[in-house]
Amino acid sequence: MADNPMLKFVIRGQSYPDKRAVTERARDFSEISHGFATSGAEDQAARCSQCGVPYCSVHCPLHNHIPDWLKLTAEGRLREAYELSNMTSTMPEICGRICPQDRLCEGNCVIEFSGHGAVTIGSVEKFITDTAWKEGWVEPVLVGEATGLSVGVIGAGPGGLTTAEYLRAAGHEVHVYDRYDRAGGLLTYGIPGFKLEKDVVMRRVKRLEEAGIQFHLGFEVGRDASLADLREKHDAILIATGVYKARDMKMPGVGTQGVVKALDFLTASNKASFGDDVPEHEDGSLLATGKDVVVIGGGDTAMDCVRTSIRQGAKSVRCLYRRDRENMPGSQREVQNAEEEGVEFIWLTAPIAFEGTEHVTGVKITRMRLGQPDASGRRAPEPDPGSEASIPADLVIKALGFDPEELPTMFGEPSLAVTRWGTLRVDHRNMMTSIDGVFAAGDIVRGASLVVWAIRDGRDVADHIQAYLQAKTPAKQRVAA
């Protein structure tokens, strides 16, 4: 009997691809590790216990067939592993890079519970599809017979691109509208290159363009066309805009020059990485070089801002978060990476004012303590009286999260119903909004969330749109097809 290639977790320890030296990686925007070699990926995949109830798959929003493609990888059957991975995800190599695996698949790995350290699933997932691109296994989108029906997708982020791919494969004409000059949404302009190099996103976009999906970039619904205009042009519409309205704070000095929004800062940096002219870098307003930088927030966007500031050559970088390390929403791996690169975290601390007249010079802060749990179940932070102090700052970046924009007003469509949080109201049985034939998916429905959830929603809504279009298609046309 051949030796079982799996169940090696007892004799092989957990390992991740080696990171580049801090002194090297903190000077550029390339990814901080180069990924597994084939032997490393096979060794880690072979640690999988092939458990009867794969909690890794259960806790993956896409329900990827993780144990199956780990087994194929361990057996050296990489092309089959890629094909299986690609069955459930339109962007496996992107999820492998940016998913918080420590909270999802790896955090729920059975051998993690047994004390042996989780299989490094994300790194193996990245390796599989990067290898597929390198070897030419990633095939063009197989476009079905033309249906004569047209779909408009508003938003070229992960959710919109996923739906566009599935509906194009079904034979529909697909048009994607996005306000930015490049497709990808936050994958392109919100996430720094050291987590997700931009050619990884652009090759996905190119594949969709080659499939005949038509992109209308620099296009704003409400400015270049109303929602009603697009409804007249298309048989169905998907709204997948994401949530881009930065949450703000009310305190003295918040409007002082040098106090900026996280997405403005990250977008400017990513545009510069593309080689674009960035006026805000030329005048220094969104550039950290030589400055004392303070980032406010504890999520992944805050981690992106502190690590970008390091790479731009900041004099110092501090991150203020009102709770402690254990209660922060961001990835603990990102905190570790940031600390290695020289970021100082000041836990249990909140700003109460921004100092300076013409330009910010400092942040007045107060210490916090954790009280009773709030509605989210986390202990609510409370100010600690008498603990006020000041820290210097030439640039303050607010990374407090995102809320929905006022889409009914922006789109010129007051009948578009929203929830009390401003997200689009949908019938969750079919993901349709209050307007017939207009669907919505991703963060604009669920609120700010993960890329993997946007992909899941994009996959689900594609099925609902397909059912809607089939119901509209005359019976004789369906028979002919």
UniProtKB/TrEMBL annotation:
It comes from Sphingobium nicotianae. Residues 151-458 form the FAD/NAD(P)-binding domain. GO terms for molecular function: 4 iron, 4 sulfur cluster binding; metal ion binding; oxidoreductase activity. NCBIfam families: gltD_gamma_fam. Its cofactor is [4Fe-4S] cluster. Keywords: 4Fe-4S, Iron, Iron-sulfur, Metal-binding, NADP, Oxidoreductase. This is NAD(P)-dependent oxidoreductase. InterPro entries: DPD_II, FAD/NAD-bd_sf, FAD/NAD-binding_dom, GltD-like, Helical_ferredxn. Residues 371-390 are annotated as: Disordered. Residues 25-136 form the Dihydroprymidine dehydrogenase domain.
